[in-house]
Structure prediction request, 237 residues.
Amino acid sequence: MAADKAAFADSLRAVGAERYHDRHPFQVAMNEGRLTKTQIHHWIYNRYYYQKSIPIKDAAILANLPDRDKRRVWVRRIVDHDGTVEEGGGGIEMWLALARAAGLDAAEVQSERFVNPGARFAVDAYVNFARSSPWLPGVASSLTELFAPDLMARRITALCERYPWIDPRGLEYFRQRLNIAPRDAAYTLDWVLQAADTAQLQDACVDALRFKCDVLWALLDATERGAADAAASVSEG
Prediction:
């Protein structure tokens, strides 16, 4: 017998309160203005690999969705990140704009030469999870969007106020996500609450969201390590 939907929703939100990467020491340091330029650069390098993989992840989930109505909604996520031939843009291009605003060469970011192996492993694991899981836990893993707007707002403030060497015009990705994330989270949560009608399915959704939080945490772990290795290499040189 399924648990109460309200209790289920509370369990999903509790995952964010306990495990979302806004608590990661690297993210806390970013918000407090304590990161070096090298650390910010490696965050952009490594997070790019995640950004470019989001539409691949969403395409995998799209292929598993059981009905046309859901596919028509979900496909917008791919367009949001890939943009269109006619209009260009998209989240990936906005991330490259952030790279340029921080003084990086976009082509170097796209080369992925500074992507830490741990970051690559974590992101690839997420794509493989989306590809191999039933649609419901795959969709549920995207519910980190429930927690994203608060972090995005704090990140915009921190990057503008504490890192004046970053051109604030390059922060459009985060500004866009302030509106897109709540929109996507609303229908995703509705789908999950409606479809997870047994305790077993609800547990699978909670586990999927925990896994996604672990992916984001591991991505920052790898970013932190990559930046430390880069700084040590400069010191030794």
Observations:
- The two ends are 63 Å apart (CA to CA).
- Residues 44 and 99 are 6 Å apart (CA to CA).
- DSSP finds eleven helices and no strands in the chain.
